[in-house]
Amino acid sequence: MASKLQKRVVGTLVLVSIGVIVLPDVLDGKKEHYQENYQSIPLRDDFDGTVSQMPVEEPEVIEVTAPDTQVNDTRSADTNAQAETEKSDPTPTASSTASVNDGDSAWMIRLGTFRNQENASRLVKQLRDKGYQAHILPRDIQPGDLAKVVVGPHVSKTTLESQLTDLQSLTGLKGQLRKFDPLTQ
Fold first, then answer.
1. pLDDT tens digits for 123-156?
2. C-alpha of 152 from chain center
3. Do residues 136 and 147 lie in contact, with contact meaning Cβ atoms separated by under 8 Å?
4. CB contact set of 130 (below 8 Å; sequence gap of 6+)
5. Do residues 151 and 175 touch, judged by C-beta distance below 8 A?
6. Which residues contact 110 (CB under 8 A, 6 or more apart)?
7. In the chain, what is the greatest distance between 2 CA atoms, to the nearest angstrom?
8. Pairing of strands 147-154, 106-114
9. pLDDT tens string 173-185
10. Confidence band (pLDDT; 50, 70, 90) for 84?
11. Alpha helix locations (H) across 75-138?
């Protein structure tokens, strides 16, 4: 009995070893070896010396004249006289100084200062969705810095003053109207 069992075990081992050794070669088919095609990158480009020896041309000079600033001929004579007196009057009126002061600077509304930058970003997104020009200052904010949420800048102070109540009802924050100085922002 042992001999029949031994023959079957040996036969099974021979068949399994042939299957393990020979079958992968037979089923694999034609063996191909792939070689990657590559080119080495030169450390420095070949320099064409003739380009550096070409003469540099002198720049062209073009004369530009300012356009004439003449008064329209369609104005009436008394309007021209009034314009002449305003030009010669050295003392500015109150309305002209207000427009000059408003024109010299821009304004912004500071809604709040946040330590959590995600909250500041969420508020800015909410304001932009409602049509406001909202920003986070400073622009290059680092983790751990305070983020200021502002609306603006705008050249009209009255426009921003009218937006204060809308912003307070929208966000629940009481904004502060401040002058915008781009050098300190």
1. 999 999 999 999 898 888 888 889 999 998 888 8
2. 17
3. yes
4. 170
5. yes
6. 148, 149, 150, 175, 176, 178
7. 137
8. antiparallel
9. 888 888 888 777 6
10. very low
11. 77-88, 94-104, 117-129
Residues 6+ apart with CB under 8 A from 168: 174, 175
What DSSP string runs through 29-45?
-S---------PPPSSP
Distance between CA 90 and CA 92 in Å, rounded? 6
User: Angle, to 10 degrees, between the axis of helix 117-129 and the axis of helix 157-171?
Assistant: 110
Tell me how crowded residue 155 is: count the other CB atoms within 10 A of its CB.
Answer: 14
Contact yes or no for 171/111 (Cβ under 8 A): yes
The tokens for 47 are 């320099």
Q: Which helix (H) or strand (E) holds 21?
A: helix 2-28
What residue spans define the domains of the chain? 103-180
Q: Residue 113 and residue 146: Cα distance in Å, rounded?
A: 6
Report how far residue 86's alpha carbon sits from residue 144's, in angstroms, rounded to the nearest whole number.
55
Q: Which CATH class is domain 103-180?
A: alpha beta
At 164, which helix (H) or strand (E)? helix 157-171
Q: Which two tokens stand for residue 143?
A: 């983790």
Backbone angles phi, psi at 14, to 5 degrees: -65, -45
